[in-house]
From TrEMBL:
Pfam families for this protein: Glycos_transf_2 (PF00535)
CDD domains: DPM1_like
InterPro entries linked to this entry: DPM1-like (IPR039528), Glyco_trans_2-like (IPR001173), Nucleotide-diphossugar_trans (IPR029044)
Record bears the keyword RNA-binding: no
Species this chain originates from: Sphingobacterium deserti
Alphabetized SUPFAM superfamilies for the sequence: Nucleotide-diphospho-sugar transferases
Similarity comment: Belongs to the glycosyltransferase 2 family.
Biological processes per GO annotation: glycolipid biosynthetic process
GO MF annotation terms: dolichyl-phosphate beta-D-mannosyltransferase activity
Statement: the UniProt record of this protein carries the keyword Ribonucleoprotein: no
Protein name: Dolichyl-phosphate beta-D-mannosyltransferase
Domain Glycosyltransferase 2-like: residue ranges: 6-172
A GO CC term assigned to this protein in UniProt: membrane
Length: 241
């Protein structure tokens, strides 16, 4: 029985889903996987359910009706994990932009004392492969902006490759998390730091997807830009114990 659960939200990831599942299950450290699928019309959920016959007791799927957003998918997954025995809960993309091998390094960081380990693209320079320069600059300066507004010392504030120790997710009021895109990732890091948890960054190389379609949009970027200001203002009026 694994103490670690990898949550992978999906929407139309039929090109990647079987490969990412098999790769995670091939690692030297055992991980369970929870797929949170938002009713993918391309049959992603059916692929996962077929694989459950092979990976019984290690592979799970929660199917939701409609595209409800990344943040709500992770909150759904967090609550599912907290209802079970897992000590370490991970966020990871389905498209291999996050190297599954790095799951072991993130887990190791938490074993060594971190409460939240972030797979960081920017802790040692800029480690991004296959992104156009415009998107690299947008992502990098988004993190600079977040640090300036919030004051948190996290180089890659929008990172979506994360390991949480159980106590972090038990402490943060998950029903109070309001954002769904990049702002969700910022909000989780910001709240963890406000609650005095130890957040560390683990350097990774981020490789843009080669199959499937990116879910990035101007709406998601706009939410992050204005959401950061909202998070900071709200933090002035609430106690975090």
């Amino acid at each position: 029985m694994s103490d670690s659960l990898v949550i992978i939200p999906t929407y139309n990831e039929k090109e990647n889903i079987e490969k990412i599942i098999r790769k995670v299950f091939s690692l030297a450290v055992p991980f369970d996987i929870l797929i949170v699928d938002d009713g993918s019309p391309d049959g992603t959920g059916n692929i996962v359910k077929a694989l459950q016959k092979e990976f019984g007791g290690r592979l799970y799927i929660e199917e939701r009706s409609g595209k409800l957003g990344l943040g709500t998918a992770y909150i759904h997954g967090f609550k599912w994990a907290l209802g079970r025995h897992y000590d370490y809960i991970f966020e990871m993309d389905a498209d291999f932009s996050h190297n599954p091998e790095d799951l072991i390094r993130l887990r190791e960081a938490c074993l060594l004392g971190a409460d939240m380990a972030v797979g960081s693209r920017y802790i040692k320079g800029v480690n991004v492969v296959n992104w156009p320069m415009s998107r690299v600059l947008m992502s990098y300066f988004a993190s600079v902006y977040v640090r300036f507004i919030t004051g948190i010392d996290v180089q890659d504030a929008t990172a979506g490759f994360v390991c949480f120790s159980r106590k972090v997710l038990e402490k943060i009021p998950l029903d109070g998390i309001k954002f769904v895109g990049y702002a969700f990732q910022i909000e989780m890091k910001f709240k963890a730091i406000l609650y005095k948890f130890k957040v560390v960054e683990v350097p990774i190389i981020f490789t843009d997807r080669t199959e499937g379609v990116s879910k990035m949009s101007t709406r998601i970027f706009r939410e992050a830009f204005f959401g950061v200001i909202q998070l900071k203002i709200e933090s002035w009026f609430k106690k975090y114990n």
